[in-house]
Amino acid sequence: MAPRNKSLSTEQLGLVVRTARMYHEQKLSQAEIAEQLHVSQSRVSRWLSDAIREGIVRTIVVAPPGAETDLEEAVAAKYGLQTVVVADVHADDEPSIIRALGAAAASYLEVTLTGTNRVGISSWSATLLATVDAMAPRNVKTAERVVQVIGGVGKPTVQVQATHLADRLASVTKATPRYLAAPGIVSSRSGRDALMEDPFVAEVAAEWDHLDTLLLGIGSIEPSPLLRDSGNSLGETDLSVLAAAGAVGDVCLRFFDEHGSLVESGLNDRVLGISPEQMLRVGRRIGVAGGTRKYAAIRAALTGNWVNVLITDKETALKLEADTAPIKLTEEHHEQPTVLRT
Questions:
Q1: Window from 38-47, 83-92, 195-204 with minimum mean pLDDT
Q2: Rounded to two decimals, what is the model's pTM?
Q3: HEC string of 72-113?
């Protein structure tokens, strides 16, 4: 409790208490209180401030059922994140987790996009598909640009999912879309370089240096059956080479090891998409991922600072909080963590 203001007499304290009860308990307006007590409204306002300073009125924030504020704050502080949102998941199967993560990410974006944001979005991802499909169209513009940051992956017939992601997000935010009409992986570095010189590809790539937000899925080294069946995953040879090099996961096909360090491989020269350096320069990098299968990849993505906003499920968040493996945070990690309730 704050020290008592010595300038308030007993009679004044009585009026402060009465004013506080009229305002907080009887729900009278300051103007109505002023009229009943025959004082000015500014005097009522000062008395309400006195009530807080004297400890007569105390503010207590009570999280609603299902809110995981303490857990979110703990994970944000431990991994040096800007924000953590824990989704409310009612079942532990992967489709249920994906739906819950998509709903939570959609709510987060709907309340944090300002209308001037330049948003980059990665390629095929089940959680990102769930996110953009859960977003409701708005009557106002909530983003300036939506830019595809990596080409489609896998069979040409399913590469259109990457365009669907950018198109849907641009539609609901009323942003200008920029599509990357190219494959995400090519057969050689020379092939990648040739495509990057194409005027249409180069025009989109130029946008990557001006993004302020990235919306990212976090992939595990072992693709889900759904991803493998869709053709939207790397071939077995590439996956075996990456696993042998210690890779545990990726964002935008930039694979990292358990410590979050980039795994050097020939694949990096074949990816047609945003570079690791460009990714890490984006101020807000939102990772949407959860589930047991992706835990190692999620933890590594946080440790390596690939994402600084995490939207995940409760079980994953609890495991992250309890994990005792060493974490080496860089200067970039040490941002003020915040928790946003959606």
A1: 83-92
A2: 0.78
A3: HHHHHHHHCCCEEEEECCCCCCHHHHHHHHHHHHHHHHHHHC
